[in-house]
Structure to design on (357 residues):
């Protein structure tokens, strides 16, 4: 039986029960505790700081295969077969004498043959007059003319060793020329396409290859020189120092410039200008332009114009680019490039220059 609430204490909060609110709070606290326990258990089971143990891979196995023995000896095929000698006996055949020869021999007599011959007779009818003979010796002047052959002259007809036989890989070029006949020349020479690394990567070196092929074909057709095209190398290749003449293509980088400087100062020759090597000659060789290396016009009687074909008045030039304008003139001369007096490069005139610009 409930105790009635006095009416004087009746209010709006008289029916408030705190246990109702605490019940909801206890429920959320219990759920939070269960969730925290689950999270901690997962962290204990799955430890992110634990290092994974790597298993060692299985070592590689090597399989040895033993070849079956050969049935024949290794040098059996290299032996030169020798024919077996056979015993051959010759049988002597007795020829029968001819009867006419026997009769002629029997009738021949040495005594009768000597009796038939006539005796030797000789009549000497010669008279000498001693008084008319002059015994005084006379001395006459005789002109003796002769030419002295030089000791170091090469006789092409008496040459014992063929020059082309020297092409064994040791020498890149060897030429023998008759001093009396410049076109009587024979030997061999090897060419290679020398390009820069940038030109080789861009693929702009086809023109240099065609020019070298034309040069090789011309030497093989019009001269006695056996020319060959070796392939392509770059400026910084060590084989560059073994090539006597090059046709460069492309601008070299720093390492290639140093190698080109070493090539020119060691005896190399360039078909073209050496303007792209001026910096290397000053930096790596310590040369001074104008004093140690320079470029000048080759005179018309330079030996290069008569080394094989005799070009009167210098090399032929082109008239392309000739104009009536006074500021435009064709390059009507051949330019030679020198390093300490040695010709290291040559430029032929094409008539495409503008001297005023």
């Amino acid at each position: 039986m409930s105790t009635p609430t006095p009416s004087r204490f009746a209010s709006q909060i008289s029916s408030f029960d705190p246990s109702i609110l605490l019940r909801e709070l206890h429920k959320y606290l219990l759920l939070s505790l269960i969730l925290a326990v689950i999270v901690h258990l997962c962290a204990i089971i799955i430890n992110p700081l634990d290092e994974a143990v790597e298993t060692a891979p299985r070592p590689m196995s090597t399989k040895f295969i033993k070849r079956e023995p050969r049935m024949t000896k290794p040098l059996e095929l290299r032996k030169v077969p020798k024919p077996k000698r056979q015993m051959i006996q010759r049988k002597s055949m007795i020829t029968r004498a001819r009867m006419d020869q026997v009769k002629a021999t029997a009738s021949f007599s040495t005594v009768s043959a000597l009796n038939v011959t006539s005796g030797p007779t000789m009549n000497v009818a010669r008279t000498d007059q001693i008084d008319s003979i002059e015994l005084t010796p006379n001395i006459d002047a005789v002109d003796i003319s002769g030419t002295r052959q030089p000791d170091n002259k090469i006789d092409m007809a008496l040459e014992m060793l063929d020059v082309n036989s020297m092409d064994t890989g040791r020498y890149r070029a060897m030429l023998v020329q008759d001093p009396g006949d410049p076109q009587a020349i024979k030997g061999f020479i090897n060419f290679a396409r020398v390009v820069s690394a940038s030109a080789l990567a861009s693929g702009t070196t086809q023109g240099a290859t065609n020019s070298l092929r034309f040069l090789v074909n011309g030497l093989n057709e019009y001269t006695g020189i056996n020319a060959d095209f070796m392939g392509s190398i770059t400026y910084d290749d060590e084989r560059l120092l073994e090539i006597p003449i090059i046709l460069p293509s492309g601008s070299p980088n720093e390492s290639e410039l140093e190698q080109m400087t070493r090539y020119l100062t060691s005896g190399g020759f360039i078909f073209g200008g050496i303007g792209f090597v001026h910096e290397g000659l000053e930096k790596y060789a310590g040369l001074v332009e104008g004093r140690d290396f320079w470029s000048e016009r080759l005179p018309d009687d330079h030996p290069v114009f008569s080394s094989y074909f005799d070009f009167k008045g210098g090399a032929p030039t082109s008239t392309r680019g000739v104009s009536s304008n006074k500021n435009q003139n064709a390059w009507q001369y051949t330019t030679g490039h020198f390093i300490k007096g040695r010709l290291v490069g040559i430029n032929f005139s094409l008539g495409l220059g503008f001297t005023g610009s």
In short: The longest strand covers residues 185-195.
